[in-house]
Amino acid sequence: MDRQTASAVDQLFANSDPDKTWRKAADLIQLTLPAYNPAVIRAVFDDVMRLFDGAYPGYYRIKTPYHDRSHTLDVFLCAVRLMHGMQLSGAKLTEREVTLVIIAALLHDVGYAQLRDGKETGTGAQYTPTHVKRGINFMRHYIQERGLPADYADDLAPMISCSDPRLPLSRISFPNQRIRLAGQIVGTADLVGQMADRNYLEKLISLYQEFEEARVGNYRSVHDMMRKTKGFYAAIQKKLDEGFGGLYHQLSAHFKHSMGSERNYYMEAIQKNMDYLAALTKLSESEYLTRLRRGGIASKFKTPHSK
Questions:
Q1: Region 226-237: what's the mean pLDDT?
Q2: Non-local CB neighbours of 72 within 8 Å, separated by 6+ positions
Q3: pLDDT digits (tens, 9 = 90+) for 244-276
Q4: Range of lowest pLDDT (30-34, 140-144, 217-221)
Q5: Which of 37, 81, 123, 159 is the most exposed place for a label (fewest CB within 10 A)?
Q6: For the chain, what percentages of helix, strand and coil (3-state, to nearest 5) are there?
C-alpha cells in the first residue's frame, strides 16, 4: 500500500469531527438514493450531537469515556457505508428503511445520557447493563416530541436492541424481515465501526473504566480485560457471520466504488487491531501501556492493583 493510499485509509476511520463526518455520510446517502431528502436525519443528527455536547434540553452532556461522540459517529458512518455497499450489490433499501437505520445508529447509545435533575452521579457508565432499554425509552419520547411518524418507534426499538451485546438476535422480536435486516445493519455497524477505530486498543482502557464504574465484567485489571477481548473476537466474528448474516462483506462493494479496490478496509483494520492486541498481551501491563500512544488515553490511565 503506497503512502497516499495508507493516508486515505487512515482517514476512513477519523470520525471525531461531526461536520466532516456528516459531509462524508451525506455524499454517500445521495449516491445511494439520489432523490432522498435528508432533512429528517439531519435534524436527528444535530439533536444527538447536542446531546453529547450538553446542549440538549433536560440532559447533561454524555460523559462516558468509551461510548462517546466519536463512537456514535463511527457507527453512523459505518452504517451509511454499509447501506451504500448493499445498494451497489443489489440489496436495495427503501427511503424509509434508510431513515430508520440512520436514526437507530445515531440513537443506539443515548441511554448513557443523564437527566439534569440534580440526582445523577458518575459518568453515566453505571447504566451499562440497562443503557439499551434506556435508549429505547428516550427514542420513544423523542419520536413523539419531534413529531416523527409514530410507527417509527415500534420498528426502531428492535433495531436499537441489535446493539445490545448481551442480547442474541433470537430473543429480539421484529415486526417483519425487512426490519430484521435493518437491525442487522445497525448491529453490524456498531461492532465493525468501533473495532476498526485506529484508537480502538487505547479506547479499551476507557471501556475498562466504564465497566469498573458499572461494576460489570468481573475483570481483575485492564490487562485481564484486554486478554479476554482477544478471545471474545471469535464470538464477535460468529455474531457478525451468523446473527447479522455476514452483511459486513457488502462493505467491499462500497470501497470498490469509493477507493477503486474491493478490499474490506474495515475488516482489515479490525484484524490489524487484533493482531497488535495479541502481541501486546504477551507483555506486562506496564510495558504495553507505553506502546498505546494514540489519543493520549493510556498516558492518563493510572494502573490499578489487580483485584
A1: 88
A2: 48, 52, 105, 106, 108, 109
A3: 999 999 999 999 999 999 999 999 999 999 999
A4: 217-221
A5: 37
A6: 65, 0, 30
User: Do 247 and 183 form a contact (C-beta atoms < 8 A)?
Assistant: no
CA 199 from centroid of its chain's CA atoms: 13
Architecture of domain 11-300 in this structure: Orthogonal Bundle (1.10)
Q: How much is the mean pLDDT over the chain? A: 91
Contact, 102 vs 80, CB < 8 A?
yes
Q: CA–CA distance from 227 to each of 135, 145, 222, 250 (Å)?
A: 30, 44, 9, 30
Nearest CA to 253 out of 88, 126, 98, 74 is that of: 88
- Max distance between CA atoms of the chain, in angstroms, equals 57
28-36's contacts with Cβ under 8 Å and 24+ in sequence apart are: 28/80, 28/81, 28/84, 28/254, 29/80, 29/98, 29/102, 31/84, 31/257, 32/80, 32/83, 32/84, 32/87, 32/93, 32/98, 33/87, 33/95, 33/98, 35/95, 36/95, 36/98
Residue 34: pLDDT band (50, 70, 90) is very high
Position 293 scores a pLDDT of 60
Ranges of beta strands (E only) in 94-239 are none
Q: Which residues of 147-156 are buried (b: 16+ CB within 10 A; e: fewer)?
A: ebeeebbebb
Whether 83 shows a pLDDT value over 60: the answer reads: yes
Please tell me the predicted confidence (pLDDT) of residue 259: 93
